[in-house]
Write a structure and sequence with these properties.
The chain is of the alpha+beta class and 161 residues long. The chain has helices spanning 3-18, 98-113; strands at 77-80, 90-93, 120-130, 133-142, 145-152. The chain has a five-stranded mixed β-sheet with strand order 1-2-5-4-3, with helices on one face.
Amino acid sequence: MNKLAKLASIVTTVCACGSGATPPPAAPQNAPAVDIAKTTASADTHNAGPAPIAAKPAAPPSASGERPTAIPGSSIRFTGGDGSSRASAIVIEGAKGETDGTEAEYWYLEKVWGPRGQRWTLQQQSLLGDQGRHFDALEIVRDGKTETIYFDISAHFGKLF
């Protein structure tokens, strides 16, 4: 897909999701692994709106209790806090643009809480600004409770590819 077609796809997705349209379902659990640097825009995109109320994320289900620090085989790294607020947002570093940055967010959530659609679902994704920084706030439902996870996307915000 050329860059212009990819941009049109992103714009179309943003417009469709912002209008209240239901995002497409999550990939099946047995879907093959995808190199996020080579994929197209995620269907879940930024929706402007008021900042959701933060809920502290629970400890990850892994035996070690550690959160991922990088996506193996890529330049993407995760630093910062636990994502429970803007001040303790999970910082995404090394993303080439918004597409792989957004997909890194979902990769992170699946590594921490398990498969999307089975262990958690996305309610809303919002783009927030605060003192020159840019954040994605992902409101998810997990175990019947709604919580918001914050990612600092300042390093790749506005970069399309």
